[in-house]
Amino acid sequence: MEAKFLASALSFLSIFLAIHAQSNDKLVPNYDNVEHQMKFYDIRTPLVLSCNVRDADPTAPLIWKKNGTAVTEVASLRGRFKLIDAERKFIIDRSESHDDGLYSCEIDGESKNINVIARVVVRVPSNTAVVEGEKMSVTCTVLGTKPQLSWTFGNITLTNATDRFVLKEDNGVPNSILTLENVTLDDRGEYKCFGRNAANEYGVNSTVVYDTTTVRVKGKFAALWPFLGICAEVLILCVIILIYEKRRNKSELEESDTDPQEH
């Protein structure tokens, strides 16, 4: 209990000192987390960065950079942003995952960094079909800054040490692909892929996002039943035709026996 209280007190003190130090700065960015100089954004929504300027020439230009390069020279930003000098703002109307990075605002030789972090978005197929005894593979597609992925099945958190499950990396993101060898009917159900990053750890009221896929397991002979059904229909049809032909031939033969013979 004392350790938790001490950790909370130290965290509060560090935040207080960071805010106090910021109050004396010429540049004050609109951080979401002051202590770690972070700004969070949702992909495909506006990204708005601002720097309040104190004790400086109001006509002095505010210079914006991304990863040490002026934003006007960054190819991926060309034609996608606007600067509002009167409000000291840098705005991307429709942000993408690659708009994250280390930004900075500069004026009169003073600079402030802003760690811009894209919140995580995850997607899995809504349904996954697999035949009993075969291998299941589900990929969790993720966007966001340095994402961390995890999986659950029911109330079980899946790891590489969980039964027959194997988690693999995809596009440099660990745990992106969930595989399961020799699937059984008991493996049916809902599988969830959870995504989180620094926005969840340091942001306020940031929820861990997830998406769900429903795994449907077909029996080994599931594909055989329709074929057998067709074969049965064809066989029945052949029997009906054979019986009909036999009866017709018998009827014709009886009619020929009753016809009067010519003298």
UniProtKB/TrEMBL annotation:
Pfam families: I-set (PF07679)
InterPro entries documented for this protein: Ig-like_dom, Ig-like_dom_sf, Ig-like_fold, Ig_I-set, Ig_sub, Ig_sub2
Positions of transmembrane segments: 223-244
Membrane is among the record's keywords: yes
Keyword annotations from UniProtKB, A to Z: Immunoglobulin domain, Membrane, Signal, Transmembrane, Transmembrane helix
UniProt domain Ig-like: residue ranges: 29-115, 118-209
SMART domains named among the record's database cross-references: IG, IGc2
Segment forming the signal sequence: 1-21
SUPFAM superfamilies assigned: Immunoglobulin
Entries under PANTHER family matching the protein: BASIGIN RELATED, BASIGIN, ISOFORM G
Protein name per the record: Basigin isoform X3
Taxonomic source organism: Drosophila kikkawai (Fruit fly)
